[in-house]
Amino acid sequence: MNTLFNLSGLKLKPYLTFLDLKVSVTNPDGNRAMQEGDSLNLTCTHSCDGGNLSSAFTWFKNGEHINEGSILYLSNMSSENTGNYICSLKTHTGATSGAIHIDVEYGPKNTSVSVSPSMEVDAGTNVSLICSSHANPPVENYTWFRVDAKFSKDVGHQPVFFPDYGGKYLCCATNKHGSQNSSVVVLKIKAYWTTLPREVLIITAITVLLIVIALIAIRRFHKASTWITETGCEEEIQDCMENTDYVNWLSCDTNQSQEGHPSEGGAEVIYTTVYFNHRNTEQQVDFHTE
């Protein structure tokens, strides 16, 4: 608001002056969406200048002062340049231009994995792996990989993954400008027996040990019994053979005469082998036929 004075020095009624501030955008890369690495120029003008750009301007981003001058140069832009820009006259800060929104797109950044409740859990615990990433536009696809010594296996396509097994995992975040992998996280799931109380583990270990000892003892006893039986038979047979006398027993026909002469019809001679075991007979008996 300004106040006019006439030649006689009398004060006249005040009047309002409206300034028409405008911001023009110069994009060397055309009308496509702004991406990281692009450059952009913002030019501030008002109607009183007539395009001479002689006024002093101040630039603001998201309400904060960032620079002065009629032209704001934004080169090699990054995600930090995204925001709302306005200009105003340095001498009339109340008069501002309309806001120009600059949106810089970029691929996924700061991709990471968080584990809930922790990276080392007991068997049977529900575990969730959460993939997060900064991207503009937002991440379109998440891919989970289980990393092995030789290869990586695709195991999921959601921001949150619920693994069934322990191991090494990573996620890959993707949008139209690229993708980025997270670092590898190692999930450890304790075996069920490690979560049992100490007393239970001790009793179980002693029971298993006693069962093993009993099985070994039974097996050895069975083997020893079989060996004794087989060895005893062989020794007995051999001993019997060594302590046996071989005797030829002569049997004559009943028709033989008492004088020892054979009968008229002839005599039939029969030989018989008889075994005597010296273990049972201390004295040998000789049989003679008269």
TrEMBL record:
Q: Does the keyword Metal-binding apply?
A: no
The cross-references to InterPro entries, in alphabetical order and at most eight, read: Ig-like_dom, Ig-like_dom_sf, Ig-like_fold, Ig_sub, Ig_sub2
Keyword Protease set for record = no
Which Gene3D superfamilies is this protein grouped with? Immunoglobulins
Q: What SUPFAM superfamilies does the record tag this protein with?
A: Immunoglobulin (SSF48726)
At the top level, the lineage of the source is Eukaryota
PROSITE patterns associated with the record: IG_LIKE
| Sorted UniProt keywords | Membrane, Transmembrane, Transmembrane helix
* Pfam families xref list: Ig_2 (PF13895)
Q: Please state every residue range assigned to the domain named Ig-like.
A: 14-97, 108-187
The membrane-spanning stretches of this chain are: 200-218
PANTHER family for this protein: B-CELL RECEPTOR CD22-RELATED (PTHR46013:SF4), VASCULAR CELL ADHESION MOLECULE 1 (PTHR46013)
Recorded protein name is B-cell receptor CD22-like isoform X3
Organism for this UniProt entry: Gymnodraco acuticeps
Q: What gene is behind this protein? A: LOC117548739
